[in-house]
Design brief:
alpha/beta; GIY-YIG endonuclease; Rossmann fold; six-stranded mixed sheet; binds adenosine-5'-triphosphate; binds zinc ion; hydrolase activity; PriA_C; ATP binding
Length: 747
């Protein structure tokens, strides 16, 4: 206490959370005059280094203890709003992520914040240069009229190099003027091009607009068949948020690939929204971050990390394709962006729309029980019919050995392209062949670091592990027996399908679309554009092509292997397959002409395939929901996974067993009950399954064991996990425990 006098009058004690793996803010003393408030960003010493952090609370009137370190400086950053800080606290508690790491999700993008750089623009002075070449003449013509232009724009308009612009400045024919920085996004006009909605669309839009207007936290499921105009409908909700002076966030699973969406948005609102994903430069992201905090930026379309932007007046969140697995973040902090979007909306008192043609079981149940509003569009827009679906029974009319396209599908493709329309062949498998083996000795190529076969990529002449990315050259001889010409590719990937298509349709313009080709998102965006513009007759693709795209000339979809993924033993296999196949067949017939889809399957009677073929989504949902309810699976019960991994299999298994023991030795808690080991669990008890080898037992050289916590809906799973980790033995020998609350992936 005596040291308190050391601090000058007016010094503050503040709790600062740093963006590192700690769970609690630390106290610091801030010099008088900083006038810190919660949400402010500061720099502080932490251990031996200096870091930035966010003031989590200010202890008003507290006398600083002498041992407190000092806040070094205050950063020039807009404050992190209270609602966002509350959301971060909540997310950290729910997902068992250290709070500092949860904070980092929200502040990482701000780290690069450089002040917005002013730009230099050019305009004509009226002086003519001494020598007027045709190029110079074009340049001066482009700069005419007293307006200012960027150097790039002038050079482009005059088809000359930037050097010509410089030369004209030297000669006094152009002058440079300083201009304010370019805005991160231009103003949007909610009335720019409002569509004429159809009655069902209008009804759905009305409910959303009402919710946005009354500023009420209200989740909606917007469920409409593919091509029903869900996008048009939620655009009206965005327009309403804009009219109200608020902000809107649209989350999309593959935003980096959806140039089409941005164009559509611009056609509706006059300008594009701000884009937010890993392909956007650090600097740009820092500017978007700031503009979201000041309210200057009104609409962001982004990947899951956009959820952590510091919006200052968020009125609407849209989660497009809400059922998509891509919303689950699995490395580092593991959270489900769709679920967390609902939580964020609650903190913000915002409206939230989950849009899908094939909602997740969780969301469907929430809509059926009335927790979410349920808006439905039962038919395609513009009276377009749904595609006609037909099975191809591979047992009776399959292709000849070594081929993958059945005669009837080949026939349909031929007819389609002869009419000048497009066909899409869907196979959710990258590469040439999923397995390579030696016909002489039976040797199979597998990854040494993972429990997985190596996938042949013939274009790259390589064998690739799809789990860890390991690449090796495809040898000419078997490494085991030395035989040459003995290596055989087993099963098809998209590259092999392309080979077959080229043989069947040598004159067709064929494109393979796959995420692993060089060129990244840029290339895929361009290719998607080309498809939409009719530059190809046959498109062969993985699930990349299934997502939300509009290809007006596409009238035939061939699903090459509908059974792929059904036999995986994953509790979500049925749901995922149903969603994916609906999505991909939904690409057919979105333009003027009706669509058709042929489904190659060995089990046309399988409930998932049957539901798809009959178009009876209701029967599928009823059955799948009943199944989950009986099994106590989400959303009727809760799951959490503990993945224990180590370089040494015995160490991983040993630690997993120790965790299991610790769980059963926990003292009784009023918030949860743990079932006795080996006994039959009561309805209100938490059960721990395993440890079992994870389905992929080895990844990146680490052996993995899994414990699955299965709990009734009302149990405090997080409380249980926290208690368990607090009493469990220390992780030694490189053992890692990863916690996944609400796991989506059971690999
Ligand atoms: N009211 C409307 N007036 C004119 N065109 C419309 C209208 N509603 C929808 N459309 C058009 O119908 C097509 C499908 O609409 P949209 O992409 O919004 O459907 P969706 O339900 O989002 O589809 P998906 O789930 O397959 O992505 C688009 O080309 C869209 O412009
Ligand atoms: Zn591997």
């Amino acid at each position: 206490m005596s040291a308190a006098q050391d601090e000058p009058e007016g010094a503050q004690v503040v709790d600062v959370l740093a963006p590192v793996a700690v769970d609690a803010p630390y106290s610091y003393v801030a010099p008088p005059g900083l006038g810190l408030r919660p949400g402010d960003s500061v720099t502080v010493p932490l251990g031996t280094r200096e870091t930035y952090g966010v003031v989590w609370s200010v202890a008003e009137g507290a006398a600083p203890r002498s041992n407190l370190k000092r806040v070094t400086a205050r950063l020039d950053r807009p404050p992190l709003p209270q609602k966002l800080r509350d959301f971060i606290d909540w997310l950290a508690r729910y997902t068992l992520t250290p709070r500092g790491m949860a904070l980092r999700l929200a502040t990482r993008a701000a780290e690069d914040a450089a002040p917005d750089a002013p730009r230099t623009l050019y305009r004509a002075t009226g002086h003519s240069p001494e020598r007027l070449t045709p190029t110079r003449r074009r340049l001066l013509a482009a700069a005419e009229g007293g307006m200012t232009f960027s150097k790039k724009a002038l050079a482009e308009a005059a088809a000359c190099t930037a050097g010509v612009v410089d030369a004209m400045v030297d000669e006094g024919a152009l002058e440079a003027v300083a201009a304010p920085p370019e805005p991160v996004a231009r103003p949007l006009d909610p009335d720019f091009a409002a569509p004429l909605l159809e009655p069902a669309q209008s009804l759905a839009a009305g409910s959303l607009i009402e919710a946005v207007r009354t500023k009420s936290y209200k989740p909606f499921l917007l469920e409409g068949v593919t091509g029903s105009g869900k996008t048009e409908v939620y655009f009206e909700a965005i327009a309403s948020a804009l009219t109200e002076g608020g902000q809107a966030l649209v989350m999309m699973p593959e935003i980096a690939l959806t140039a089409q969406f941005l164009e559509r948005f611009a056609a509706r609102f006059g300008e594009r929204p701000a884009e937010w994903h890993s392909g956007v430069s650090q600097k740009k992201r820092a500017r978007i971050w700031r503009a979201a905090a000041t309210g200057q930026l009104r609409v962001v379309a982004g990947a899951r990390s956009a959820l952590f932007l510091p919006f200052n007046n968020l009125r609407l969140i849209v989660v497009d394709e809400e059922h998509e697995g891509a919303y689950k973040q699995d490395d580092g902090a593991s959270y489900h962006a769709r679920d967390m979007a609902v939580v964020r909306a609650r903190f913000e008192n915002a409206t939230i729309v989950l849009a899908s043609a094939t909602p997740s079981i969780e969301t469907r149940v929430n809509a059926e029980t009335g927790r979410y509003g349920h808006l439905r569009l039962h038919a395609r827009a513009g009276a377009r019919p749904m595609p006609l679906l037909e099975p191809i029974d591979m047992r009776r009319e399959g292709p000849p050995r070594g081929a993958w396209i059945a005669p009837r599908l080949a026939q349909a493709i031929a007819e389609t392209i002869s009419r000048g329309e497009q066909a899409l062949l869907f196979l959710n498998r990258r590469g040439y062949a999923p397995l390579t083996l030696c016909r002489d000795c039976g040797h199979r190529f597998r990854c040494t670091q993972c429990d997985a076969w190596l996938v042949e990529h013939r274009f790259r002449r390589a064998l690739v592990c799809h789990h860890c990315g390991h690449v090796e050259r495809r040898p000419d001889a078997c490494p085991e027996c030395g035989a040459t010409e003995s290596l055989a590719a087993c099963g098809p990937g998209v590259e092999r399908l392309a080979e077959e298509a080229a043989t069947l349709f040598p004159d067709a313009r064929t494109l393979v679309l796959s995420s692993d080709f060089p060129g990244g998102a840029e290339r895929i965006r361009r290719e998607l554009d080309d498809i939409a513009n009719g530059a190809f007759d046959i498109v062969i693709g993985t699930q990349l092509v299934a997502k939300g795209h509009n290809f007006p000339q596409l009238t035939l979809v061939g699903v090459v292997d509908a059974d792929l993924g059904l036999g995986s033993g994953d509790p979500r296999a049925a749901e995922r397959t149903f969603q994916l196949l609906n999505q991909v067949t939904g690409r057919a017939g979105r333009g003027e002409r009706p669509g058709r889809a042929l489904i190659q399957t060995f089990q046309p009677e399988h409930p998932v395939i049957a539901a798809l073929l009959s178009g009876d989504a209701e029967a599928f949902y009823a059955q799948e929901i009943a199944l989950r309810e009986r099994a106590g699976l989400p959303p009727f019960g809760r799951l959490a996974a503990l993945i224990v991994s180590a370089k040494d299999a015995a160490a991983a298994e040993g630690h997993a067993r120790a965790l299991l023991r610790a769980a059963h030795e926990l003292p009784p808690s009023p918030r949860y009950r743990v079932a006795t080991l080996g006994g039959l669990p009561e309805a209100d008890e938490i059960m721990i399954l395993g440890p079992a080898e994870a389905p992929i037992a080895l990844i990146r050289g680490r052996f993995r064991y899994r414990l699955l916590v299965k709990a009734p809906r009302g149990a405090d799973v997080q409380g249980f996990l926290r208690d368990l980790l607090a009493t469990a033995p220390r992780e030694r020998g490189g053992v890692r425990v990863q916690i996944d609350v609400d796991p989506q992936n059971f690999m």
